[in-house]
Amino acid sequence: MDLLGDQALPICRGIIEAAMLDLLRNTEMKPSPLWTGHVALDIDTSPQDNSRTRKPGVGPTYKGCDGYCPILAYAGVEGFFRGSEFYIGTQHSQKGAPAFFRKQIQRLSGPGIDQVLVRLGSGMDVADTMVAIQAEADDTVISWPLGERTSSSGWIRRWCCPRAPGSA
Questions:
Q1: 49, 67 contact by CB (below 8 A)
Q2: What CATH number is associated with residue 40?
Q3: If DSSP codes are grouped into helix, strand and coil, which group holds residue 135?
Q4: 77-120 pLDDT tens trace
Q5: Is residue 163 scored above 50 in pLDDT?
Q6: Residue 137's pLDDT band (boundaries 50, 70, 90)?
Q7: Does residue 2 fall inside a structural domain?
Q8: In-domain check, residue 79
């Protein structure tokens, strides 16, 4: 049964995603833009707690529970579902993320959508992902949880002011 499930899951997910996109296209429902004119594309992982199960692929997520951690994409003020990929709990959220981002931005871009604003959680601030997004989208916002162990100035220095190797 697991073998059948492993083979059927990608096919079923593809059918569901195609049906969702067809529904939006056929009803001419377009994601509403923000006040800036950008259509928001929200992408993040979502840990799912499966601690009390013995399902294959269940493992520790970044939230500390055992489970799965799929990546999801939603667009517009309405939050129209655009796509997803299944991640096992132990899979890092960046594995395969640049290709997922490119695919979602390309799906959203098109007639009637002039500007895309990609909004991400702080776990998606890896260079490969940023390069993929900048090649496809107009603008990007990364939410950063400020706390005792993080600082915005450190993040800004890391991304905006690269230092020469060996400099302090």
A1: yes
A2: 3.30.420
A3: helix
A4: 998 888 888 777 777 777 788 888 888 888 887 767 888 888 88
A5: no
A6: confident
A7: no
A8: yes
**What rounded mean pLDDT belongs to the chain?**
75
Of the CA atoms within 13 Å of residue 118, those in its CB half-sphere come to 32
- Tell me whether residue 104 is in a domain: yes
Residue 4 lies inside a defined structural domain of this protein: no
Tell me how many domains the chain contains: 1
pLDDT in tens, 49-85: 878 877 777 777 777 788 877 888 999 999 888 888 8
Domain, as residue range, for 45: 31-160
- Number of other residues whose CB lies within 10 A of the CB of residue 12: 11
Full-model pTM: 0.71
Q: 126-165 burial by CB neighbour count: b if 16+ within 10 A, else e?
A: eeebbebbeebbbebebebeeeeeeeeeeeeeeeeeeeee
In sequence order, the 6+-apart residues with CB closer than 8 A to the CB of 121 are 44, 45, 142, 143
